[in-house]
Amino acid sequence: MMDSIKNAALLTDLYELTMAAAYFEHGIDEAATFSLFIRNYPPHRNYFVSAGLPDVLDYISTLQFTPDDLAYLESTKMFKPKFLSYLESLRFTGDVVAIPEGRLFFANEPILEVTAPMIEAQIIETFCINTINLQTLIATKASRCVQAAWPRDLVDFSFRRTQGIDAGMKVARASYIGGFIGTSNVRAGNHYGLPIFGTMAHSFINSFDEEIAAFRAFVETAPENSILLVDTYDTISGARKAAEVGKEMAARGEELKGVRLDSGDMAQLSRAVRKILEEAGLHSTQIFASGGFDEYKIKKVLDDGADIDAFGVGTKMGVSADAAYLDIVYKLVQYAGHPVLKLSSEKETLAFAKQVYRFQTGSGQMKKDVIGLRDDDLPESEPLLQKVMEKGKIIFSSPALPQIQTTFLEEFSRLAASYKSIEGGPKYYPVSLSPKLNALQAELVATVTKKELAP
User: Fold this and answer.
1) What is the structure's pLDDT at 2?
2) Are residues 55 and 121 in the same domain?
3) 271-280: which pairs have CB atoms within 8 A and are 24 or more residues apart?
4) Structural domain count of the chain
5) What are the tens digits of pLDDT across the range 214-263?
6) Is 216 helix (H, G, I), strand (E, B) or coil?
């Protein structure tokens, strides 16, 4: 797992390099603009949360083929010496515009656009797609969990079942952007400055002769982190023992922070456990729930009347179990000053270097987005794409994670509830083309059709 994306030029698909070799040999290296966007919404999704930009910029700004990289490429016998010599001095010299992290965006809107000499812009494709795909996917999934649980707190419990160490790190960060309060992943807490949370495992209870002895030992060692797992043998029995320990702590001037439910009928059990805590005078002790939660299960248990203060959300969020990927692509939209496009069935692309313009209602609610040209004049709109890299240098300072989360939560509050539904049918936020882009796109389609498809 890399803490910094350096010496990583080989994190690319082979065809990026074979195309680059052909570009090099045939002199195809004028300025190209590529657009990164998501074609369609996964099931039950109506929006996306931008995440992953700092890793993309770190990778691009330090792009360099090391001697070991070049020796490996030479060993494949796929590349000519002149091209490998060219790669030795290759650095990214282009510009990047992007939607900052924590902002909402929608299908077919550019998340970022890269303008650089063709080979530079092409080689970075795989990394850009991979990075934005995972982190946007998770930030969006996490935001849906937050929506379902609001105003209750959520903690990322997914690390042990994410698809690898690096994914576990990125999930912790992206879920925080999407509104989680922290993570169980200690390395992510240290690396990203995230709050860390944890309770105990069933093995801790099993290692003592009696459940209540385990509870007493744990709170003696960590009274400030006294959240007791009560379902090892029987949730109600465990809760009564936890209440007894809580009263013992109160007599010492301490406080039982919470109990954790991890199995069973969460709605029924949480109400019963609350009654036990209240009868013991433990009015501030929280009920924390874990065990297969995502937005769907959270919504169900709360609709069933669960009395839960916070959730640990693990596997299904960390792998985005119901929608494990985004239909994200990186497409050439302009080369050598000329717009280009695809006409493939159901995969037609929008040509030209673009901007996304956001409009609000008079009360500040999000109203609609318009995809237009960079120089479109659309009064009373906010351009979302910001220049983040110029001539190969990062010119954008990423805010601290708490500020990114605040940006998301503030904007999310201005998105109508109908676009945030968890299970309902699709109601999509309005996104249209500007009149100028629409006209130029239609003209280009007609030109390309006549040129490429005529008998």
Assistant:
1) 44
2) yes
3) 271/305, 271/306, 271/307, 272/235, 272/236, 272/239, 273/230, 273/235, 273/236, 273/239, 273/307, 274/307, 276/236, 276/239, 276/240, 276/243, 277/239, 277/243, 277/246, 279/243, 280/243, 280/244, 280/246, 280/247
4) 2
5) 999 999 999 999 999 999 999 999 999 999 999 999 999 999 999 999 99
6) helix
Of residues 399, 396, 401, 407, the one with CA closest to residue 57: 396
Give 357's strand partners: 370, 383
Residue 117 lies in a domain: yes
Query: Is residue 153 situated within a structural domain?
Result: no
Question: What's the CATH number where 266 sits?
Answer: 3.20.20.70
Q: How far apart are CA 45 and CA 326, in angstroms?
A: 11
Do 340 and 334 meet the contact criterion of CB atoms below 8 Å apart?
Answer: yes
Specify the 3-state DSSP secondary structure of 277: helix
- The domain that holds 344 is classified in CATH as 3.20.140.10
The pTM assigned to this predicted structure is 0.95
Any residues with CB less than 8 A from the CB of 432 and at least 6 apart, and which? 368, 369, 370, 371
DSSP 224: G
Instruction: Give 138-184 pLDDT, tens digit per residue.
Output: 999 999 999 999 999 999 999 999 999 999 999 999 999 999 999 99
Query: What pLDDT does residue 6 have?
Result: 64
How many Cβ atoms from other residues are within 10 Å of residue 68's Cβ? 10
Query: Amino acid identity, residue 267?
Result: A
Residue 275's domain spans which residues?
198-289
Question: CA-CA distance, 20 to 29, in Å (whole number)?
Answer: 9
For the beta carbon of residue 237, count every other beta carbon within 10 angstroms.
14
238, 177 Cβ separation under 8 angstroms = no
Residue 183 covered by a domain: no
Quick one: tokens of 380? 């009373």
User: Which domain-ending residue is among 289, 308, 337?
Assistant: 289
In a domain, 317, yes or no: no
Whose tokens are 């939209």? That residue is 333
